[in-house]
Design brief:
Elements: E1 21-27, E2 48-54, H1 65-78, H2 91-100, E3 129-133, H3 144-154, E4 158-162, H4 168-177, E5 183-186, H5 194-204, E6 206-209, H6 211-216, H7 218-221, E7 225-228, H8 237-247, E8 256-259, H9 268-273, H10 278-283, E9 287-289, H11 299-302, H12 312-324, E10 329-333, H13 338-348, E11 350-352, H14 361-371, E12 393-399, H15 405-409, E13 426-430, H16 433-437, H17 439-448, E14 453-457, H18 474-486
Helix pairs in contact: 1-5, 8-12, 12-13
């Protein structure tokens, strides 16, 4: 059954060096989601030991945002080496919390069964990775995680363990015994303290939890509370974010940040699903925030509908965060509205890597580190035909969302698994920047492409930006995009977009 084509987001792309016209058709998926796995690599004698866990087995998971935060943070910690990331440890914050003796929800410090390795543990080689079955929580393709598990078993890339008890405490106890985390960070369930808590999860290798969660789960009561954010008594998101910028941002990764898109200005479905990929932020000690980047209202964004309000103060904090990090910092998660988020991110020197509804990215990073395999070059699949005269118009079927990790994690929303894939020429849009971040995920597509599967580099070559908004960051972005293209890992054909539907990358005249 054919899926309904998606509306093109970025219009017609034309090559800079040719006058040949191309009619570009975007679509989300082709044909039915049949099974078409092929082995992406030769069977390996060494398999990554991995726990397979269904998030639906966690009590109150679908109703509790804070419970989801704990589970996804645990996935980030289970799948990360403690030394990963370019941030520094939060020793001063940890010392302050311990001296204050306010960490315990009952008013006294617990000395429970927490991990003896502490914040400065050295390696978790030989421990288990964690692959979550997010099933219906995955908007793009609910069967995706189970399909990946079947593929990893078929290729003997991973050896799976299923816990005899499927519960939050069973999961926590298992990875506590493996030394994946050091204790708990307590926070108030006020809607904004969870983000500094998640940032601390990556820095201090702690699990975020509210007092009510601790009371409900005996396994959490056995953990030492290493940080207690309740002592700061923040009244607003702005206060909590200001504290996190001053105290935590200097300790975080310089190359990765995360925005949660969980605010009134967000699209509801995306707001509910963006946290799903916070595991990769925790695994890499990224700064986690939830800032609405809409500095001014206009009829399109604040009319009826949608009902939105300008958030200049949140926008200013967001710019402060991104501009303090390295040029080209990857911003994962998401932010609504899209054009405002991408515009501000570009102007601040970052690139957008949309990852709402993209589970298990930390697992894919861990698997890539485990195998040590470099990214494979995508096959060219060039038919050898010479381009016709300048008056020739070519029709290209190109998938959309090629600038996002979520398109790779969802098997192109199941289209790659279709039994009909390969029956017609399709140009699959992917971002080569993701090859270095998630080589094991990237290599699956490089190894299973068929003769009619060709590739283009998704907007705009090295992370989604508005080129016209980069300003002083233009040279750095162009150098990185040029290096990515020159590496020949991806395609030399780049979708740069045009000024269409108010999402300008570059105009037709500038091409």
């Amino acid at each position: 059954m054919l899926r309904k084509p998606a509306v093109a987001r970025r219009g017609v792309a034309r090559p800079r060096t040719s006058a040949v016209r191309m009619l570009l058709v975007y679509f989300t998926a082709v044909c039915s989601s049949g099974s078409q796995w092929e082995a992406a690599s030769a069977n390996s004698a060494i398999q990554l030991p991995t726990v397979w866990f269904n998030v639906s087995s966690v009590a109150n998971f679908s109703q509790s945002y804070e419970t989801q935060a704990l589970v996804y943070a645990l996935a980030g910690l289970a799948n990360s080496h403690p030394a990963r990331g370019d941030g520094r440890h939060s020793s001063s914050i940890a010392s302050e919390s311990r001296r204050s003796n306010r960490g315990d929800p009952h008013g006294k410090s617990r000395q429970g069964k927490s991990n003896a390795r502490g914040e400065n543990n050295t390696a978790n080689s030989g421990t288990h990775a964690l692959l979550l079955d997010t099933n219906t929580f995955d908007l793009d393709y609910p069967e995706s995680d189970r399909a990946w598990k079947a593929h990893l078993e078929e290729t003997e890339a991973a050896a799976f363990t299923v816990l005899s008890e499927q519960s939050l405490c069973a999961l926590v106890n298992f990875f506590q015994n493996e030394g994946a985390f050091s204790g708990l960070t307590l926070f108030n369930p006020d809607g904004f303290s969870v983000y500094p808590a998640l940032t601390l999860s990556g820095i201090a290798r702690s699990l975020p939890a509210t007092p009510a969660m601790v009371a409900a789960h005996p396994c959490l009561q056995n953990l030492t509370v290493t940080h207690d954010l309740r002592q700061y008594a923040w009244r607003t998101k702005l206060e909590a974010t200001r504290w996190a910028i001053d105290r935590l941002l200097p300790l975080c990764s310089r190359s990765l940040a995360f925005n949660a898109d969980h605010y009134p200005n967000a699209v509801p479905t995306q707001a509910a699903l963006t946290l799903m990929s916070v595991d990769v932020a925790v695994a890499n000690r990224a700064f986690v925030m939830d800032l609405s980047v809409l500095w001014v209202c206009d009829p399109v964004n604040c009319g009826d509908p949608p009902h939105r309000n300008a958030t200049p103060e949140e926008t200013a904090l967001y710019v402060e965060v991104i501009s303090s990090l390295e040029d080209g910092v990857a911003v994962m998660g998401w932010g609504d509205p899209e054009h405002a988020f991408t515009n501000v991110t570009s102007a601040a020197g970052g690139v957008v890597l949309c990852s709402f509804s993209a589970p298990n990215l930390a697992f894919w990073q861990r698997l890539g580190e485990f195998t040590g395999q470099p990214p494979l070059k995508l096959p060219k699949q060039d038919s050898g035909h010479r381009l016709g005269p300048a008056s020739t118009t070519y029709l290209i079927f190109e998938t959309n969302e090629g600038d996002t990790p979520r398109i790779l994690s969802s098997q192109f929303t199941s289209a790659w698994l279709s039994s009909n894939r390969g029956s017609i020429p399709i140009s699959w849009a992917v971002d080569p920047l993701l090859a270095s971040m998630f080589p094991a995920l990237w290599n699956y597509y490089a190894a299973t492409a068929l003769a009619n599967d060709t590739f283009v580099t998704g907007v705009d070559g090295a992370g989604y930006v508005f080129i016209n908004s980069l300003g002083p960051h233009t040279d750095a972005y162009e150098q990185r995009a040029g290096a990515v293209i020159a590496s020949e890992i991806g395609s030399a054909v780049v979708d740069v977009g045009v000024a269409d539907a108010r999402w300008p990358a570059v105009t037709v005249a500038e091409l």
